[in-house]
From TrEMBL:
This is Sugar phosphate phosphatase. Keywords: Hydrolase, Manganese, Metal-binding. It catalyses: beta-D-fructose 1-phosphate + H2O = D-fructose + phosphate; beta-D-fructose 6-phosphate = dihydroxyacetone + D-glyceraldehyde 3-phosphate. It comes from Hebeloma cylindrosporum. GO terms for cellular component: nucleus. Its EC number is 3.1.3.-. Subfamily III proteins have a conserved RTxK motif about 40-50 residues from the C-terminus; the threonine may be replaced by serine or cysteine.
Length: 505
Protein backbone atom coordinates (compact mmCIF):
# COMPACT_ATOMS: atom_id res chain seq x y z
CA UNK A 1 0.00 0.00 0.00
CA UNK A 2 1.32 3.50 -0.86
CA UNK A 3 1.05 5.53 2.34
CA UNK A 4 1.39 8.95 0.46
CA UNK A 5 -2.05 8.70 -1.20
CA UNK A 6 -5.16 9.06 1.00
CA UNK A 7 -7.79 6.38 0.39
CA UNK A 8 -10.61 7.45 -2.05
CA UNK A 9 -13.80 8.72 -0.33
CA UNK A 10 -16.51 6.09 0.14
CA UNK A 11 -19.07 6.10 -2.71
CA UNK A 12 -21.98 8.28 -1.78
CA UNK A 13 -25.56 7.98 -3.00
CA UNK A 14 -26.44 11.56 -2.07
CA UNK A 15 -26.12 14.39 -4.63
CA UNK A 16 -22.92 16.46 -4.32
CA UNK A 17 -23.46 19.40 -2.02
CA UNK A 18 -24.16 22.66 -3.92
CA UNK A 19 -21.46 25.20 -4.31
CA UNK A 20 -22.60 28.71 -3.42
CA UNK A 21 -20.93 31.50 -5.30
CA UNK A 22 -20.93 35.00 -3.86
CA UNK A 23 -21.92 37.44 -6.57
CA UNK A 24 -21.61 40.62 -4.55
CA UNK A 25 -19.70 42.46 -7.28
CA UNK A 26 -22.25 41.86 -10.05
CA UNK A 27 -25.09 44.30 -10.78
CA UNK A 28 -28.17 43.76 -8.56
CA UNK A 29 -31.17 41.81 -9.93
CA UNK A 30 -33.75 43.97 -11.73
CA UNK A 31 -37.47 43.85 -11.04
CA UNK A 32 -38.47 42.58 -14.48
CA UNK A 33 -42.20 42.30 -15.24
CA UNK A 34 -43.18 39.33 -17.40
CA UNK A 35 -44.95 40.60 -20.50
CA UNK A 36 -48.71 40.21 -20.55
CA UNK A 37 -50.50 38.40 -21.96
CA UNK A 38 -48.75 35.08 -21.47
CA UNK A 39 -48.26 33.30 -24.80
CA UNK A 40 -51.27 31.01 -25.47
CA UNK A 41 -49.18 27.81 -25.40
CA UNK A 42 -48.10 28.60 -21.81
CA UNK A 43 -51.61 29.41 -20.61
CA UNK A 44 -53.52 27.12 -18.25
CA UNK A 45 -55.92 27.82 -15.37
CA UNK A 46 -53.01 28.31 -12.98
CA UNK A 47 -51.13 30.48 -15.47
CA UNK A 48 -53.81 32.70 -16.97
CA UNK A 49 -52.98 35.17 -19.75
CA UNK A 50 -53.36 38.08 -17.32
CA UNK A 51 -53.90 37.82 -13.54
CA UNK A 52 -57.19 35.97 -12.97
CA UNK A 53 -59.89 37.14 -10.57
CA UNK A 54 -60.23 35.00 -7.45
CA UNK A 55 -62.73 34.91 -4.60
CA UNK A 56 -60.22 36.20 -2.05
CA UNK A 57 -59.62 39.42 -4.03
CA UNK A 58 -61.62 41.61 -1.71
CA UNK A 59 -61.75 44.55 -4.11
CA UNK A 60 -63.46 42.47 -6.81
CA UNK A 61 -66.99 41.33 -7.61
CA UNK A 62 -65.52 37.83 -7.38
CA UNK A 63 -65.30 38.30 -3.61
CA UNK A 64 -68.84 39.63 -3.19
CA UNK A 65 -70.11 36.74 -5.29
CA UNK A 66 -68.26 33.94 -3.57
CA UNK A 67 -68.77 35.39 -0.10
CA UNK A 68 -72.41 36.37 -0.20
CA UNK A 69 -74.21 36.15 -3.56
CA UNK A 70 -73.65 32.43 -4.09
CA UNK A 71 -74.78 31.41 -0.59
CA UNK A 72 -77.90 33.60 -1.05
CA UNK A 73 -78.65 32.02 -4.43
CA UNK A 74 -78.15 28.54 -2.99
CA UNK A 75 -80.38 29.41 -0.01
CA UNK A 76 -83.16 30.43 -2.38
CA UNK A 77 -82.65 27.24 -4.38
CA UNK A 78 -83.07 25.18 -1.20
CA UNK A 79 -86.28 27.11 -0.41
CA UNK A 80 -87.59 26.27 -3.87
CA UNK A 81 -86.90 22.56 -3.44
CA UNK A 82 -88.56 22.60 -0.01
CA UNK A 83 -91.61 24.28 -1.55
CA UNK A 84 -91.84 21.40 -4.03
CA UNK A 85 -91.22 18.84 -1.28
CA UNK A 86 -94.19 20.17 0.64
CA UNK A 87 -96.50 19.55 -2.33
CA UNK A 88 -95.40 15.97 -3.02
CA UNK A 89 -97.47 12.96 -1.95
CA UNK A 90 -95.61 9.81 -3.00
CA UNK A 91 -93.32 8.57 -0.20
CA UNK A 92 -90.66 7.35 -2.62
CA UNK A 93 -90.49 10.72 -4.35
CA UNK A 94 -90.57 12.68 -1.09
CA UNK A 95 -87.70 10.67 0.39
CA UNK A 96 -85.72 11.01 -2.83
CA UNK A 97 -86.21 14.80 -2.90
CA UNK A 98 -85.37 15.14 0.79
CA UNK A 99 -82.01 13.51 -0.03
CA UNK A 100 -81.44 16.06 -2.80
CA UNK A 101 -82.10 18.81 -0.27
CA UNK A 102 -79.59 17.22 2.14
CA UNK A 103 -76.97 17.24 -0.61
CA UNK A 104 -77.69 20.93 -1.24
CA UNK A 105 -77.16 21.44 2.48
CA UNK A 106 -73.75 19.76 2.20
CA UNK A 107 -72.90 22.07 -0.67
CA UNK A 108 -73.91 25.06 1.46
CA UNK A 109 -71.57 23.82 4.22
CA UNK A 110 -68.72 23.42 1.72
CA UNK A 111 -69.34 26.82 0.16
CA UNK A 112 -69.64 28.79 3.37
CA UNK A 113 -66.82 26.81 5.02
CA UNK A 114 -64.59 27.38 1.95
CA UNK A 115 -63.95 23.64 1.52
CA UNK A 116 -61.54 22.18 -1.00
CA UNK A 117 -63.01 21.36 -4.40
CA UNK A 118 -63.66 17.64 -4.62
CA UNK A 119 -64.20 15.66 -7.85
CA UNK A 120 -67.68 15.45 -9.33
CA UNK A 121 -69.53 12.20 -8.62
CA UNK A 122 -70.10 10.06 -11.72
CA UNK A 123 -73.75 10.82 -12.39
CA UNK A 124 -73.71 9.75 -16.04
CA UNK A 125 -73.64 13.31 -17.32
CA UNK A 126 -71.60 13.78 -20.50
CA UNK A 127 -69.36 16.35 -18.80
CA UNK A 128 -68.10 14.36 -15.77
CA UNK A 129 -64.79 13.46 -17.43
CA UNK A 130 -64.19 17.07 -18.48
CA UNK A 131 -64.84 18.32 -14.96
CA UNK A 132 -62.68 15.76 -13.21
CA UNK A 133 -59.85 16.08 -15.67
CA UNK A 134 -59.70 19.81 -15.02
CA UNK A 135 -59.89 19.36 -11.25
CA UNK A 136 -57.18 16.67 -11.26
CA UNK A 137 -54.85 18.65 -13.50
CA UNK A 138 -55.23 22.12 -12.06
CA UNK A 139 -57.26 22.36 -8.88
CA UNK A 140 -56.14 19.65 -6.47
CA UNK A 141 -56.10 21.18 -3.02
CA UNK A 142 -57.75 24.42 -4.25
CA UNK A 143 -60.78 25.77 -2.43
CA UNK A 144 -63.76 27.96 -3.41
CA UNK A 145 -61.87 31.16 -2.60
CA UNK A 146 -58.41 30.55 -4.02
CA UNK A 147 -59.41 28.78 -7.25
CA UNK A 148 -59.98 31.21 -10.13
CA UNK A 149 -63.41 32.77 -9.65
CA UNK A 150 -64.73 31.55 -12.98
CA UNK A 151 -63.96 27.94 -12.18
CA UNK A 152 -65.14 28.10 -8.55
CA UNK A 153 -68.45 29.70 -9.52
CA UNK A 154 -69.10 27.20 -12.34
CA UNK A 155 -68.15 24.35 -9.98
CA UNK A 156 -70.83 25.48 -7.54
CA UNK A 157 -73.53 25.17 -10.23
CA UNK A 158 -72.18 21.73 -11.23
CA UNK A 159 -72.35 20.57 -7.58
CA UNK A 160 -75.87 21.95 -7.34
CA UNK A 161 -76.80 19.86 -10.36
CA UNK A 162 -75.12 16.82 -8.82
CA UNK A 163 -77.42 17.17 -5.79
CA UNK A 164 -80.25 16.18 -8.15
CA UNK A 165 -78.57 14.18 -10.90
CA UNK A 166 -77.74 11.24 -8.61
CA UNK A 167 -81.38 10.94 -7.52
CA UNK A 168 -83.98 8.58 -8.93
CA UNK A 169 -86.87 10.92 -9.64
CA UNK A 170 -85.42 14.46 -9.58
CA UNK A 171 -82.55 14.29 -12.06
CA UNK A 172 -83.95 17.08 -14.22
CA UNK A 173 -85.43 19.24 -11.48
CA UNK A 174 -84.74 22.95 -12.01
CA UNK A 175 -84.57 24.97 -8.79
CA UNK A 176 -84.62 28.21 -10.82
CA UNK A 177 -87.49 27.35 -13.14
CA UNK A 178 -90.18 29.26 -11.20
CA UNK A 179 -88.06 32.44 -11.15
CA UNK A 180 -87.28 32.20 -14.86
CA UNK A 181 -90.95 31.93 -15.83
CA UNK A 182 -91.81 34.68 -13.41
CA UNK A 183 -89.49 37.35 -14.89
CA UNK A 184 -90.88 36.80 -18.36
CA UNK A 185 -94.39 37.32 -17.09
CA UNK A 186 -93.23 40.51 -15.34
CA UNK A 187 -91.79 41.89 -18.60
CA UNK A 188 -95.24 42.70 -20.07
CA UNK A 189 -94.57 46.12 -21.62
CA UNK A 190 -91.39 45.17 -23.45
CA UNK A 191 -92.81 41.82 -24.58
CA UNK A 192 -95.79 43.45 -26.33
CA UNK A 193 -93.74 46.39 -27.58
CA UNK A 194 -91.85 43.88 -29.72
CA UNK A 195 -94.64 41.41 -30.54
CA UNK A 196 -96.90 44.18 -31.87
CA UNK A 197 -94.14 45.30 -34.23
CA UNK A 198 -93.06 41.85 -35.42
CA UNK A 199 -96.21 39.71 -35.29
CA UNK A 200 -96.44 39.85 -39.07
CA UNK A 201 -93.36 39.41 -41.23
CA UNK A 202 -91.82 42.87 -41.72
CA UNK A 203 -91.68 44.43 -45.14
CA UNK A 204 -89.45 47.29 -46.29
CA UNK A 205 -91.51 49.65 -48.45
CA UNK A 206 -91.38 48.97 -52.20
CA UNK A 207 -91.34 52.68 -52.91
CA UNK A 208 -87.75 52.99 -51.65
CA UNK A 209 -84.76 52.91 -53.97
CA UNK A 210 -82.32 49.95 -53.56
CA UNK A 211 -79.89 52.08 -51.57
CA UNK A 212 -82.68 53.45 -49.36
CA UNK A 213 -83.79 49.87 -48.71
CA UNK A 214 -80.31 48.88 -47.60
CA UNK A 215 -80.20 51.92 -45.33
CA UNK A 216 -83.60 51.07 -43.81
CA UNK A 217 -82.38 47.54 -43.19
CA UNK A 218 -79.14 48.77 -41.67
CA UNK A 219 -81.00 50.99 -39.22
CA UNK A 220 -83.28 48.15 -38.29
CA UNK A 221 -80.32 45.84 -37.78
CA UNK A 222 -78.63 48.35 -35.47
CA UNK A 223 -81.75 48.86 -33.36
CA UNK A 224 -82.41 45.15 -33.05
CA UNK A 225 -78.79 44.52 -32.14
CA UNK A 226 -79.36 46.86 -29.24
CA UNK A 227 -82.59 45.10 -28.28
CA UNK A 228 -80.70 41.81 -28.26
CA UNK A 229 -77.86 43.38 -26.28
CA UNK A 230 -79.88 45.10 -23.58
CA UNK A 231 -82.12 42.05 -23.20
CA UNK A 232 -79.12 40.76 -21.26
CA UNK A 233 -79.34 43.39 -18.53
CA UNK A 234 -82.16 41.68 -16.67
CA UNK A 235 -80.55 38.47 -15.51
CA UNK A 236 -81.99 36.88 -12.43
CA UNK A 237 -78.79 36.18 -10.59
CA UNK A 238 -78.33 39.92 -10.07
CA UNK A 239 -81.82 41.31 -10.15
CA UNK A 240 -83.68 38.98 -7.86
CA UNK A 241 -85.22 41.81 -5.84
CA UNK A 242 -86.15 44.20 -8.64
CA UNK A 243 -89.48 45.93 -8.75
CA UNK A 244 -91.64 45.90 -11.87
CA UNK A 245 -90.83 49.59 -12.45
CA UNK A 246 -87.10 48.94 -12.36
CA UNK A 247 -87.44 46.04 -14.79
CA UNK A 248 -89.50 48.23 -17.14
CA UNK A 249 -86.85 50.92 -17.16
CA UNK A 250 -84.15 48.39 -18.02
CA UNK A 251 -86.16 46.76 -20.77
CA UNK A 252 -87.38 49.88 -22.50
CA UNK A 253 -87.02 49.31 -26.23
CA UNK A 254 -88.35 52.64 -27.54
CA UNK A 255 -86.25 54.48 -30.18
CA UNK A 256 -85.27 57.42 -27.93
CA UNK A 257 -84.15 55.16 -25.21
CA UNK A 258 -82.03 53.09 -27.63
CA UNK A 259 -80.32 56.22 -28.95
CA UNK A 260 -79.56 57.24 -25.39
CA UNK A 261 -78.27 53.81 -24.46
CA UNK A 262 -75.92 53.62 -27.44
CA UNK A 263 -73.58 56.01 -25.67
CA UNK A 264 -73.31 53.45 -22.88
CA UNK A 265 -71.83 50.90 -25.29
CA UNK A 266 -68.23 51.53 -24.36
CA UNK A 267 -66.67 49.29 -27.01
CA UNK A 268 -68.94 49.47 -30.02
CA UNK A 269 -68.30 47.36 -33.13
CA UNK A 270 -71.95 47.40 -34.27
CA UNK A 271 -71.12 49.04 -37.58
CA UNK A 272 -68.41 46.50 -38.31
CA UNK A 273 -70.87 43.79 -37.37
CA UNK A 274 -73.34 45.15 -39.93
CA UNK A 275 -70.58 45.30 -42.56
CA UNK A 276 -70.05 41.59 -42.00
CA UNK A 277 -73.71 40.57 -41.75
CA UNK A 278 -74.73 42.36 -44.94
CA UNK A 279 -72.26 40.23 -46.91
CA UNK A 280 -74.09 37.07 -45.89
CA UNK A 281 -77.03 37.61 -48.23
CA UNK A 282 -74.67 37.39 -51.20
CA UNK A 283 -74.00 33.81 -50.15
CA UNK A 284 -77.79 33.32 -50.32
CA UNK A 285 -77.92 33.69 -46.58
CA UNK A 286 -75.58 32.59 -43.85
CA UNK A 287 -75.64 30.40 -40.80
CA UNK A 288 -75.71 32.35 -37.54
CA UNK A 289 -75.12 30.71 -34.15
CA UNK A 290 -76.32 32.17 -30.85
CA UNK A 291 -74.44 31.02 -27.77
CA UNK A 292 -77.38 31.79 -25.54
CA UNK A 293 -77.36 33.29 -22.10
CA UNK A 294 -80.57 33.88 -20.18
CA UNK A 295 -84.07 32.45 -20.49
CA UNK A 296 -87.32 34.42 -20.58
CA UNK A 297 -87.07 38.01 -21.73
CA UNK A 298 -83.48 37.83 -23.03
CA UNK A 299 -84.23 34.68 -25.03
CA UNK A 300 -87.34 36.37 -26.41
CA UNK A 301 -85.19 39.32 -27.63
CA UNK A 302 -82.66 36.88 -29.14
CA UNK A 303 -85.50 35.22 -31.04
CA UNK A 304 -86.83 38.56 -32.35
CA UNK A 305 -83.32 39.31 -33.63
CA UNK A 306 -82.94 35.83 -35.14
CA UNK A 307 -86.35 36.19 -36.80
CA UNK A 308 -85.23 39.46 -38.41
CA UNK A 309 -82.01 37.86 -39.71
CA UNK A 310 -84.05 35.10 -41.37
CA UNK A 311 -86.79 37.30 -42.79
CA UNK A 312 -84.33 39.77 -44.24
CA UNK A 313 -82.52 36.92 -46.04
CA UNK A 314 -79.28 37.73 -44.22
CA UNK A 315 -79.35 34.27 -42.63
CA UNK A 316 -80.90 31.00 -43.76
CA UNK A 317 -80.34 29.05 -40.57
CA UNK A 318 -80.01 29.97 -36.92
CA UNK A 319 -78.55 27.54 -34.40
CA UNK A 320 -79.21 28.26 -30.72
CA UNK A 321 -76.86 26.78 -28.12
CA UNK A 322 -78.26 26.32 -24.62
CA UNK A 323 -77.29 24.56 -21.39
CA UNK A 324 -77.99 20.95 -20.46
CA UNK A 325 -79.01 21.76 -16.89
CA UNK A 326 -79.75 24.76 -14.65
CA UNK A 327 -76.79 27.10 -14.83
CA UNK A 328 -75.96 30.50 -13.30
CA UNK A 329 -79.62 30.86 -12.26
CA UNK A 330 -81.20 32.20 -15.42
CA UNK A 331 -79.45 30.46 -18.32
CA UNK A 332 -81.54 28.81 -21.03
CA UNK A 333 -82.17 25.06 -20.88
CA UNK A 334 -84.16 23.01 -23.40
CA UNK A 335 -87.14 23.18 -21.07
CA UNK A 336 -86.95 27.02 -20.95
CA UNK A 337 -86.74 27.12 -24.73
CA UNK A 338 -89.83 24.98 -25.14
CA UNK A 339 -91.66 26.84 -22.39
CA UNK A 340 -91.15 30.20 -24.08
CA UNK A 341 -92.44 29.11 -27.47
CA UNK A 342 -95.39 27.23 -26.00
CA UNK A 343 -96.40 29.89 -23.52
CA UNK A 344 -96.44 32.46 -26.33
CA UNK A 345 -98.87 30.35 -28.33
CA UNK A 346 -100.97 28.63 -25.65
CA UNK A 347 -100.19 30.35 -22.33
CA UNK A 348 -102.21 32.73 -20.19
CA UNK A 349 -99.40 34.62 -18.58
CA UNK A 350 -100.68 38.13 -19.18
CA UNK A 351 -104.20 38.43 -17.74
CA UNK A 352 -104.34 42.20 -18.29
CA UNK A 353 -103.22 42.20 -21.91
CA UNK A 354 -105.60 43.21 -24.71
CA UNK A 355 -106.81 40.73 -27.34
CA UNK A 356 -104.65 42.45 -29.94
CA UNK A 357 -101.55 42.09 -27.78
CA UNK A 358 -102.25 38.44 -27.07
CA UNK A 359 -102.87 37.72 -30.74
CA UNK A 360 -99.58 39.39 -31.70
CA UNK A 361 -97.71 37.17 -29.26
CA UNK A 362 -99.47 34.03 -30.53
CA UNK A 363 -98.61 34.82 -34.16
CA UNK A 364 -95.00 35.41 -33.32
CA UNK A 365 -94.82 32.17 -31.34
CA UNK A 366 -96.49 30.17 -34.12
CA UNK A 367 -94.01 31.48 -36.68
CA UNK A 368 -91.06 30.59 -34.46
CA UNK A 369 -92.37 27.08 -33.87
CA UNK A 370 -92.71 26.70 -37.61
CA UNK A 371 -89.07 27.72 -38.10
CA UNK A 372 -88.14 24.90 -35.75
CA UNK A 373 -90.21 22.38 -37.66
CA UNK A 374 -88.60 23.46 -40.94
CA UNK A 375 -85.08 23.22 -39.48
CA UNK A 376 -84.49 26.95 -39.93
CA UNK A 377 -84.06 27.22 -36.19
CA UNK A 378 -82.16 24.47 -34.40
CA UNK A 379 -81.70 24.15 -30.65
CA UNK A 380 -78.51 22.41 -29.43
CA UNK A 381 -76.88 21.70 -26.05
CA UNK A 382 -73.25 20.59 -26.10
CA UNK A 383 -71.84 19.43 -22.70
CA UNK A 384 -68.89 21.83 -22.97
CA UNK A 385 -71.11 24.87 -22.25
CA UNK A 386 -71.62 23.63 -18.67
CA UNK A 387 -67.98 23.19 -17.70
CA UNK A 388 -65.47 25.39 -15.88
CA UNK A 389 -63.23 25.68 -18.94
CA UNK A 390 -62.84 29.07 -20.58
CA UNK A 391 -63.28 29.33 -24.34
CA UNK A 392 -59.51 29.55 -24.76
CA UNK A 393 -59.77 25.77 -24.29
CA UNK A 394 -62.74 25.21 -26.57
CA UNK A 395 -60.67 23.94 -29.50
CA UNK A 396 -58.63 21.57 -27.32
CA UNK A 397 -61.32 20.29 -24.91
CA UNK A 398 -64.27 20.22 -27.31
CA UNK A 399 -62.77 19.95 -30.80
CA UNK A 400 -66.05 18.65 -32.26
CA UNK A 401 -67.80 21.79 -31.05
CA UNK A 402 -65.02 24.03 -32.33
CA UNK A 403 -65.23 22.45 -35.80
CA UNK A 404 -69.00 22.79 -35.71
CA UNK A 405 -68.74 26.52 -34.89
CA UNK A 406 -66.04 26.94 -37.55
CA UNK A 407 -68.73 26.28 -40.13
CA UNK A 408 -70.85 29.17 -38.93
CA UNK A 409 -70.78 32.56 -40.64
CA UNK A 410 -71.24 34.39 -37.36
CA UNK A 411 -71.19 33.23 -33.75
CA UNK A 412 -72.94 35.60 -31.34
CA UNK A 413 -71.97 35.15 -27.70
CA UNK A 414 -74.57 36.58 -25.38
CA UNK A 415 -74.05 37.93 -21.91
CA UNK A 416 -71.60 38.37 -19.12
CA UNK A 417 -70.58 34.81 -18.35
CA UNK A 418 -69.87 33.99 -21.99
CA UNK A 419 -67.77 37.16 -22.17
CA UNK A 420 -65.85 36.14 -19.05
CA UNK A 421 -65.18 32.77 -20.64
CA UNK A 422 -64.08 34.32 -23.93
CA UNK A 423 -61.60 36.58 -22.12
CA UNK A 424 -60.33 34.06 -19.53
CA UNK A 425 -61.91 36.25 -16.83
CA UNK A 426 -58.69 38.15 -16.28
CA UNK A 427 -57.61 41.61 -15.24
CA UNK A 428 -56.50 42.58 -18.76
CA UNK A 429 -56.23 46.33 -19.35
CA UNK A 430 -59.45 47.83 -20.73
CA UNK A 431 -57.58 48.92 -23.85
CA UNK A 432 -56.73 45.30 -24.74
CA UNK A 433 -58.10 44.60 -28.21
CA UNK A 434 -60.90 42.03 -28.13
CA UNK A 435 -59.07 39.75 -30.56
CA UNK A 436 -56.07 39.63 -28.22
CA UNK A 437 -58.26 39.08 -25.16
CA UNK A 438 -59.99 36.03 -26.63
CA UNK A 439 -56.70 34.35 -27.66
CA UNK A 440 -57.24 31.13 -29.61
CA UNK A 441 -60.90 31.92 -30.31
CA UNK A 442 -59.57 34.62 -32.64
CA UNK A 443 -56.23 33.18 -33.68
CA UNK A 444 -56.77 29.42 -34.12
CA UNK A 445 -57.09 28.09 -37.62
CA UNK A 446 -60.81 27.91 -38.36
CA UNK A 447 -61.79 30.51 -35.75
CA UNK A 448 -65.22 31.82 -36.84
CA UNK A 449 -66.31 35.45 -36.90
CA UNK A 450 -67.38 36.15 -33.32
CA UNK A 451 -69.37 38.93 -31.71
CA UNK A 452 -69.84 39.35 -27.98
CA UNK A 453 -73.02 41.19 -26.97
CA UNK A 454 -72.59 41.80 -23.27
CA UNK A 455 -73.90 44.20 -20.68
CA UNK A 456 -71.05 44.67 -18.22
CA UNK A 457 -71.88 42.89 -14.96
CA UNK A 458 -68.49 41.80 -13.64
CA UNK A 459 -64.86 42.85 -13.35
CA UNK A 460 -63.37 41.99 -16.73
CA UNK A 461 -63.52 44.83 -19.26
CA UNK A 462 -61.60 44.84 -22.57
CA UNK A 463 -62.01 46.22 -26.07
CA UNK A 464 -62.54 49.88 -25.09
CA UNK A 465 -60.06 51.13 -27.72
CA UNK A 466 -56.67 52.87 -27.41
CA UNK A 467 -58.02 55.31 -24.79
CA UNK A 468 -59.72 52.46 -22.90
CA UNK A 469 -57.48 52.51 -19.83
CA UNK A 470 -58.26 56.20 -19.23
CA UNK A 471 -61.99 55.63 -19.80
CA UNK A 472 -61.95 52.82 -17.22
CA UNK A 473 -59.96 54.91 -14.74
CA UNK A 474 -62.36 57.82 -15.12
CA UNK A 475 -65.37 55.57 -14.51
CA UNK A 476 -63.66 53.92 -11.55
CA UNK A 477 -63.48 57.35 -9.92
CA UNK A 478 -66.80 58.81 -11.07
CA UNK A 479 -69.04 55.75 -10.80
CA UNK A 480 -67.67 53.05 -8.54
CA UNK A 481 -69.71 49.95 -9.33
CA UNK A 482 -69.92 50.73 -13.06
CA UNK A 483 -68.63 47.26 -13.84
CA UNK A 484 -71.48 45.46 -12.14
CA UNK A 485 -74.45 47.75 -12.67
CA UNK A 486 -75.44 46.47 -16.15
CA UNK A 487 -75.68 50.13 -17.21
CA UNK A 488 -72.74 49.81 -19.62
CA UNK A 489 -72.17 47.34 -22.40
CA UNK A 490 -69.87 46.23 -25.18
CA UNK A 491 -70.53 44.87 -28.67
CA UNK A 492 -67.17 43.48 -29.81
CA UNK A 493 -66.24 41.73 -33.01
CA UNK A 494 -63.45 39.36 -33.94
CA UNK A 495 -63.03 38.64 -37.62
CA UNK A 496 -61.68 35.11 -37.03
CA UNK A 497 -59.50 33.33 -39.55
CA UNK A 498 -62.03 32.75 -42.30
CA UNK A 499 -59.35 31.87 -44.86
CA UNK A 500 -58.68 28.73 -42.90
CA UNK A 501 -62.26 27.80 -42.17
CA UNK A 502 -62.84 24.09 -42.08
CA UNK A 503 -65.39 23.35 -44.77
CA UNK A 504 -67.28 20.11 -45.19
CA UNK A 505 -68.94 18.84 -48.32
O1 LIG B 1 -72.21 35.75 -10.52
C1 LIG B 1 -71.67 36.67 -11.38
C2 LIG B 1 -71.96 36.28 -12.76
O2 LIG B 1 -71.33 35.11 -13.14
C3 LIG B 1 -71.56 37.39 -13.68
O3 LIG B 1 -70.94 36.88 -14.82
C4 LIG B 1 -72.85 38.04 -13.98
O4 LIG B 1 -72.97 39.03 -13.03
C5 LIG B 1 -73.92 37.02 -13.76
O5 LIG B 1 -73.36 36.09 -12.92
C6 LIG B 1 -74.34 36.32 -14.98
O6 LIG B 1 -74.64 37.20 -15.99
P1 LIG B 1 -75.09 36.71 -17.42
O7 LIG B 1 -76.40 36.03 -17.23
O8 LIG B 1 -75.19 37.95 -18.22
O9 LIG B 1 -74.04 35.79 -17.93
MG1 LIG C 1 -76.78 34.00 -17.48
Amino acid sequence: MNGDNPPPPPPSSSAPSRVTLHLGHLPSKKDIKAPWPRTPTRVDPNNPPWPAYRGYHEYSFAHATMQSRLPTILGKAIEDAIRTLNTESSEERVVDLAECIDRMGDLMTDLSGNAKLRPIVDDDEADVALWNKEIAKFFQGKDFMNAPWLFAEAYKYRRLHESFSVSKFWRDYDVFYRQKCDTFSRSTDAVFELSLRFADPFKISDTLSPSEKVEAERLMFLELTQVCLWGNSTDLSLLINMTEEQIKALQSTGGDSLAATEKNILGNDMNRLWDHVKTLREKTGGRVDFILDNAGFELYCDCVYADFLLQSGLATQIRFHGKRYPWFVSDVTKKDWEWLLNTMVYGQLFPNASDVELESLRRLGRRWKQYEKEGKWVYEQHPFWCTGYTFWDLHSEAPDLFLHLSRSDLVLFKGDLNHRKLTYDCAAPASTPFEVAIGPMASSAGAPVIASLRTIKSDVVVGLGPEGDEVAERLDKAEPGWKISGKYAVVLLSEGRPGEKVRFA
